[in-house]
Amino acid sequence: MTNSLSGRFLILTVIFVMLAEVFIFVPSIARFRQDYLNARLERAQLASLALEAADMISPALEAELLTNAEVYNVVLRRDDMRQLALSSPIPSPITATYDMRAPTSMTLISDALATLLNKQERVIRIIGNPVRDGGLLIEVTIDEMPLRSAMLQYGWNILILSAFISVVTAGMLFFAVRRLLVTPIKGVVAHMQAYTKAPEDARQIITPTASIKELRAAEESLQMMQMQLTSALKQKERLAQLGSGVAKVSHDLRNILTSAQLFTDRIEGSQDPLVQRMAPKLVGSITRAVHLCENTLAFGRVEEPAPTLSRVNLAQIVGDVIDSERLAAEEYEMSFSEDIPATMTVRADGEQLYRVVQNLVRNARQAIMATKKPGEICIHAHEDDNCWLLTVSDTGPGLPPKAQEHLFQPFQGGVRKGGSGLGLVIAGDLIRGHGGRLRLESTGADGTTFVIELPKADLALA
Fold this sequence. Notes:
Layout: H1 5-54, H2 59-69, E1 73-78, E2 81-86, E3 94-99, H3 105-117, E4 123-128, E5 137-143, H4 144-197, H5 213-267, H6 273-299, E6 310-313, H7 314-328, E7 334-339, E8 345-348, H8 350-371, E9 375-383, E10 387-394, H9 401-405, H10 422-433, E11 437-444, E12 447-455
C-alpha cells in the first residue's frame, strides 16, 4: 500500500489531519481549563450568596456547599474588605496561584500544559472576578487532580473525534484521488503498455479522454509522441524496403554497366575526333556508376561508407560535373561559370565529392529548367586558415517554405514533382563524413546558394 500513489496519499492525509488536530487541541484544552476554573468560581460565589441569605448556617450545610462547589474555601473582597465566606480544612499547603481575571493566550496554554504534565496532588488558589458585579474579587482553593482528570478525559474525547475525522476525511480523499487521478493514470499506463507491444499499429495510439487539465495535457503529449514514433517506424520500414530494393537494382545495374564499360573500352580506340573527345567523359561516368553500385552492394545499409581521403584537384572535379550537366542542358538557355583556382587541392574522397557537387548542380539545373527561362549556375571556391569553401549558386526560383523546413529529411524535402528529396540528404551525409557541413546560404526569388565547408584539420567542424 505504501508503494502506491493512493496509499501514500491516504497515509499523508491522516498524518496532516492529525497534525492539524494537534494545533487545534492545545488552545482547545487551555480553553477547557479556563471554563472549568471559571465554573468553580461561579459555584463558589453562589455558595457564598447562600450563606449571606441565611446569616447563620450549620457546619454540615457549609461543608455541603463547599462540596457542591468543589472548593476548599471561598474568599470575597468587597469594598476593599477581604472576607472569608466559606472555609474547610485544606489537606496540604497551596502550591500555585492562578489569576483568571485577564490571562493571555500564552499564559492559558502554558498553565494548561503544566497541569497536564503534573502528576502530584496539589492544592491551588484561583483568583477571578465575581459575576454580575458581586464584589471586587473572588478567591477559591481547589484540588488540582480533578481538574487534570477532567482535562485528560476531554483530551481523550478530542483524540477519538480527531482520529474519526482523520479516517473519514482520508477515506473520502483516498477514493476521490483514486477515482479522479489514479484510475486515469492507470489507463494511460495501460495504453503505453499496449502501444509498446505493437508500436506500428496506429490503433494503439492513445485518444485523450481525461477531464483533468494537467492529465489531459499529458495524454495529448503522449498521443503526439506516439504518432511521431509510429510515423518514424513506418518510414524506417519503408526505407528498409527501399534499401533492399536498391541493393537488388544495384546488383543488376552493376552487371549492365560492367558490360557497357567493356564497350566503351573499345570505343576509346576510335579515330573519330568527336568520339575521342567524348569517350573519356563517357568512361568516367560509367566507372563512377559502377563504383556507386559496388559500394551500395558492399555496404548494404542506408549509411554511406567512410570516405577515403586524399588530395584531389577541385577544379577537375567541378569541370567534370559542369561538362556532364552542360550536355543535359543543351536545349535550354543556361550558362555555367566556375571560379576555382586551377591549383587548389582539397583533402577529400574524390568520388564522393563529385557526387555532392553533381547533386547540387543538378538540382540547380532542374530548378531553372522548370521555369523555362534563361538561367545561370555559378560555382566558386576559396579557402581560409581553417577550411575550403565551395559555393554553388543559381538564378532559379528559390526553395519553397516546405522544402526549406524539411531540407535534409528524406522523402520530404523534394522540390520537383516526383522527386524523392534524397539528393541533398545524400550530399549532406557525404560532407558530414568528411567532417564538414553542407548549409543553405540563401534562397529567394533571385536564386539559391549552397555552401560546402571542408575542414583542413582532422577534427570535424564545431
